[in-house]
Amino acid sequence: MLDGLVLFSGSWVWLFFAAVGLLMIMLELFVGVDTGLDLVFLGSAFVIGGLITWPFHSWVLTLIVVLLICVAYLALGRRYIHRWTAARKR
C-alpha cells in the first residue's frame, strides 16, 4: 500500500493533467464545436494547470490549480465565451 503512495508522489501528475487536457482538446476537434468549445477551455485549464505546477511536484497543488482555473472558467468566462463565439443571426 505504501509503495502505491510513493508512486503517487506527484512528480508525474502534472504530465497526467497535461495529457488529459490535450485529449480533451483533441476530442473537441473530433466531436466538433457541438460542445460549445467547453472541452477546449477545460482541456486548456488542465494543460495550463499541469504546466504551472510542474516544478513543484505536488499533486495536491496541481489539483487545486486545475480546479481553480476550471471553476473560474465555468463561473466567469463561460457566459462571455459562448456569447463571443455564438453565430450571429441575421
Question: Topology of this protein?
Answer:
Layout lengths: L1 H6 L5 H19 L6 H15 L6 H27 L5
Helix pairs in contact: 2-3, 3-4
How does this structure look, described?
This protein has 90 residues and is an all-alpha fold. 74% of the residues lie in helices and 0% in strands. The termini are far apart. The mean pLDDT is 79.
Tag the structure with descriptive keywords:
90 residues; mainly alpha
Radius of gyration: 16 Å
How many strand segments? Answer: 0
| Shape type | elongated
Q: Can you summarize the main beta sheet? A: none
Please state the average pLDDT score.
79
In N-to-C order, the SSE pattern is HHHH
Spatial gap, N to C terminus: 62 Å
Poorly predicted ranges = none
User: What structural category characterises the helix and strand content?
Assistant: mainly alpha
What is the tally of helical segments?
4
Taken as a percent bin, the fraction of beta residues is: under 5%
Helix content: over 70%
